[in-house]
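Our preliminary data section would be incomplete without showing what the modeling component actually yields. Below, a chain of 147 amino acids is followed by its predicted structure, encoded as tokens that our downstream tools consume directly.
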Amino acid sequence: MTAPSSPPQALPALSPSDERTWAMLAHLSVLANLATGFFGPLAALLIYLVYKDRSRYVAYHAMQSFVFQLIWWVGGGALAGFAWAVSGVLVVAAGLGCLLMPFACIITLIPMAALVYGVIGAVQCSQGIDFRYWLVGDWVRPTLEST
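Predicted structure:
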């Protein structure tokens, strides 16, 4: 006969210092995209999944970082790739692609700007400032409040 197992104990809540650290790391996950091109959103999602029940603060910042990276890093990168492809095809086909290259260069800066914005978010979280990405923070907050 086996002894009845005790119910699993809830993990302890994070300290404010740990919350700031994990929120900062969620925002800094955007830097992982420099090496892998795609790991940043996965890292932010992993932080969200691990800490969602232990800290609403970490969950909010990790989900913000995840959505922000999907939009601006993945979406911006796809848009930049498309712009360069169209520009390249038009250079070969009609010579007009040279006129589109400045626009492709500007679009290529979108993912780079996302890196800077993610680092700003990380610094503010490490200082205890409630950081919100423009538009994304407002989209994410109601989702987390309903859970």
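Helices lie at 16-28, 32-36, 39-51, 56-93, 97-126, 136-145. The chain has one domain: 16-145. Preliminary results of this kind motivate Aim 1 of the renewal.
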